[in-house]
Task: inverse folding
């Protein structure tokens, strides 16, 4: 059996009108610099997934999580550091409060319609064709 890495991610789908919030990974990022993604982050060992979601939103965007509704769980396989990586992404529809202020992990953010998202360079591992039907 091939051994690899496994990572559980929590992903925030934040909507304003008919547009969705995405962030652009920092040029200094070791992985996927300059790619767009929904705000997300890893779940730490022993951490509750909703606590992780709230923590990631505070750290990356300086916003507070008001509510989260489970939308979808998606698994994909990628290659990272020459090892297989299984990403388990847990997508939540989120309501947040506060003014967006990015940390060093992201260079930019924007609000995009579904058709605009289709034209962005998204991080690997998003199954956009399926996700856009869910959000």
Result:
């Amino acid at each position: 059996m091939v051994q690899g890495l496994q990572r559980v991610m929590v992903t925030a789908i934040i909507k304003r009108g008919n547009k969705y919030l995405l962030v652009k990974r920092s040029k200094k990022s070791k992985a996927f610099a300059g790619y767009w993604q929904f705000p997300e982050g890893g779940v730490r060992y022993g951490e509750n997934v909703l606590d992780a979601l709230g923590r990631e939103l505070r750290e990356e965007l300086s916003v507070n999580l008001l509510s989260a509704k489970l939308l979808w769980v998606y698994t994909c396989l990628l290659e990272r550091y020459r090892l297989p990586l299984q990403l388990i992404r847990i997508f939540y529809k989120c309501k947040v409060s506060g003014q967006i202020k990015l940390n060093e992990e992201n260079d930019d953010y924007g609000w995009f319609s579904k058709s605009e998202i289709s034209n962005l360079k998204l991080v690997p591992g998003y199954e956009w064709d399926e996700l856009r039907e869910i959000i």
User: Anything to note?
Assistant: The mean pLDDT is 92. Strands lie at 5-16, 19-25, 36-37, 40-42, 64-80, 83-97, 106-112. The chain has one domain: 5-134. The domain at 5-134 is CATH 3.90.79.10 (Nucleoside Triphosphate Pyrophosphohydrolase).
